[in-house]
Amino acid sequence: MEEKLKIGLLGLGVVGSGVPEILIAHQEKIRQVTGMDLVVEKAFVRDVEVESKKALAAEFDIQLTASIDEILDDPEISIVVELMGKIEPAKTYISQALAKGKHVVTANKDLLAQHGGELVALAQKHHCDLYYEASVAGGIPILRTIANSLAADDITNVLGIVNGTTNYMLTQMVTHAKSYQEALDEAQALGFAESDPTNDVDGIDAAYKMIILSQFAFGMNIGMEQVSVKGIRGLSLEDVTMAKQLGYEIKLIGASQKTGDSIHVEVSPMLVPNSHPLASVSNEFNAVFIESSGVGESMYYGPGAGAKPTATSVVSDLITIAKNIRLKTTGHMFNAYRHETHLTGDEEIFSKYYLSLEVPDERGQFLQLAEIMNQADVSFDQVVQQKSDGKTARVIVITHTTSKKKLDEVLTKINEKTSFSLENTMKVLGE
Ligand SMILES: NC(=O)c1ccc[n+]([C@@H]2O[C@H](COP(=O)([O-])OP(=O)(O)OC[C@H]3O[C@@H](n4cnc5c(N)ncnc54)[C@H](OP(=O)(O)O)[C@@H]3O)[C@@H](O)[C@H]2O)c1
Predict the structure, then answer these.
(1) 91, 102, 178, 209: which is the annotated catalytic residue?
(2) Residue 27 pLDDT > 80, yes or no?
């Protein structure tokens, strides 16, 4: 008879319901790999009388409870899996579980991005494991890959399409010429976007994931206030179409880039050249593209969400803990790499930029733009005048590589000294 490792599950929603299913489906393999039976003993839910939850509990022989203490005070439960989401009460329950010596698995990126340092310290204090592979890019095993497989490498750049909802919307806008609102309505109808899509479309969800990725790739802890965040809200079909004509896809990119000893982390829509591997990541799929000195360029691609991929990732964390328990090696950090945090100054953040402007359709306007760019030492790579209604023309500029500081000078002067309307500015990724 194998040893039983008993699990307390907090939340039986999309991902939570998938965990007992994966554990049962792969029971024999998990037993061989860990030498143990991993069993969900109890599940914490808001209401134990909900029929769907009762049916699930009966199917997988799980005891439902609406009392968190029944899990936290049960000495036989050695792992707590938090799949409720949001900050509270998840943070309190995880903290209490760790304080009682229970190992924890969670998929909660909001919590890890904002309070990860505190929770990791608490896990250390109580010699517990805390794993959260599913918090970034759902089914893609990216955190473990960075922490283990790339531990001997020097990562210089992490670029991620880490929000499936916005990537689905952008794909629909590009391939089917749908408006932002039509694409959002469709994403909601398909269940990709929540009824309040703020965190997705405003780039907040992607920023949480980039904070966690930056911690793994560079060992640096940064806060939300140190990430420059711009979402896709209001992105016009004109920009999407123009980008396509120029040979680019617009994607919501999370970028964490190291320059010397410092990093710059941002989330914003960017122009991705068609030849770049990230350009082909469409619909709800996620991908993380890494540049490092040893491996070079590598990309990790897959489903960023969904019950089965995410629950599979949660179960991989459970298996890691089971192995640690067996080998008596629990209490080590998921990612032990630590480096003092330094942020890159605007004068050292380099990129090509896309500018879209509405300018009066009169003589001399282009000269004015050229003078402003010249004064700031920013040069044109491409210029396109899109259309004219007789009064205004849309001018698209792609600059050569320049610093963010110089670009800001150009944007300030455009605002102060011209009657141009700056419609959009986006970074342009290199080939
Ligand atoms: N869905 C994905 O594909 C995915 C991918 C990666 C990571 N994640 C993360 O995984 C976690 C779970 O996501 P999900 O999609 O499974 O969410 P979900 O379907 O909304 O499930 C959350 C469950 O937790 C329960 N819950 C929430 N607050 C509770 C409370 N205070 N007391 C008791 N129960 C409570 C909810 O109960 P009610 O039904 O009664 O409200 C619900 O059953 C989140 O942190 C999410 O960010 C999800």
Answers:
(1) 209
(2) yes
